[in-house]
Design a protein that fits this description.
The protein has 9 helices and 7 strands, in the order αααβαβαβαβαβααββ. It is an alpha/beta fold. α2 runs antiparallel to α8 and α3 packs parallel to α4. The protein has a single domain, classed as 3-Layer(aba) Sandwich (Rossmann fold), CATH 3.40.50.150. It has a 7-stranded mixed beta sheet, sandwiched between helices. The mean pLDDT is about 95. Bound molecules: S-adenosylmethionine. S-adenosylmethionine binds next to α3. GO terms for molecular function: methyltransferase activity. It comes from Amycolatopsis acidicola. It holds the Pfam family Methyltransf_19. This is Methyltransferase. InterPro entries: SAM-dependent_MTases_sf, SAM_dep_MeTrfase_SAV2177_type.
Amino acid sequence: MYDYFLGGETNWAIDRAAAERAIELLPWVRDMAKANRAFLRRAVRYCLAEGIAQFVDIGSGIPTVGNVHEVAGELNPRSKVVYVDNEPVAIAHGQVQLEQTGEPGRHGMVQADLRDPDQLWQRVLDTGILDPARPTALLVVAVLHFIPDEEWPQAALADYRQRLAPGSALVLSHGTLDAVTPAQQEQLDAYTRHYAKTQNPLVWRSRTEFAEFLGDYPLVEPGITWVPDWRPDPTIAPELRTDLTDPSQSMVYAAVGRKP
Ligand SMILES: C[S@@+](CC[C@H](N)C(=O)[O-])C[C@H]1O[C@@H](n2cnc3c(N)ncnc32)[C@H](O)[C@@H]1O
């Protein structure tokens, strides 16, 4: 569905039908996806500019418009990326994509679940691609809102935070209903019910709940913002420009924390 929203080509009839229904219920959902994807690119560029050249992208999804290894490779041809997803179709497509555009030794993709940090981290390290002693950018972008509290996403994030080397970055985005007006509530309820029928039901969280995922990591300026407001740079991804009239319409928070 996300790939379809972004105008990608790796989607199937069943995804397109579900995505079209989501668009009927929330006509600006494509722009929400684009705004999120553009944030991901800007955050990757920020990390590279800070000298962080290795990335773990949890919930990377099916390879789609502007993949992390491509964005990173443009700025640093020696950058390294390990993609992680728990979805077998995303893994299969990711591996094909990396065979075509990746480089063994610098890029990898593993199947693992965010909710199992021990296994996930071991699989990432088993690729031999990353040096865990060096600063790493951990990307968990548009993923946590698929994990309910009872599956302990907060504990998982705390675990990852303590594994990262000093100087590492934690890049997060997350869906929220904080800016939804009473007039929009019914529309959003219908949208949430629609997602409840998919493989990835949505769990919206407040700004305070989102902030907890960053733990005690100091936040990079400008702190927690709507995705379009995090260090905007329209030159980076003109194909991801949106018609959102207000940043809060993205309904997605963004933040980057750094481990001192
Ligand atoms: C909306 S996509 C986000 C793609 C990319 N991170 C981005 O923001 O452009 C969400 C991805 O999270 C993955 N995902 C959901 N729950 C997960 C879990 N428990 N562990 C790993 N990946 C998960 C889904 O399979 C999907 O590929």
